């Protein structure tokens, strides 16, 4: 099972590197979308915690 996880991890890294090398604009767009999602989620948690305190 550990070997399978390691192989899948390596394949994922190779795929990400391939995507970045072949299409850097698309990769940048995907990273931006990901960070916007994380930012949105953090803002939502912040608003929730603020409403709990108030």
Can you give a write-up of this model?
The chain is mainly alpha-helical and 54 residues long. It is built from two helices and no strands. It has helices at 2-22, 24-53. Helix 1 (2-22) crosses helix 2 (24-53). It is flat and about 50 Å long. The termini are far apart.
Apparent shape: flat
Distance between the termini: 48 Å
Total count of helical runs of at least 4 residues: 2
Structural class, by secondary structure, is mainly alpha
Enumerate the spans where pLDDT stays under 50 for 5 or more consecutive residues.
none
Strand content: under 5%
- SSE pattern, N- to C-terminal: HH
Proportion of helical residues? over 70%
Mean pLDDT rating: 91
Sheet with the most strands, sense and barrel status: none
Extended strand count: 0
What is the rounded Rg?
17 Å
Summarize the model shown.
This protein is mostly helical and 54 residues long. It has helices at 2-22, 24-53.
Question: In terms of topology, how is this protein built?
Answer:
Layout lengths: L1 H21 L1 H30 L1
Provide tags for this entry.
2 helices, 94% helix, 54 residues
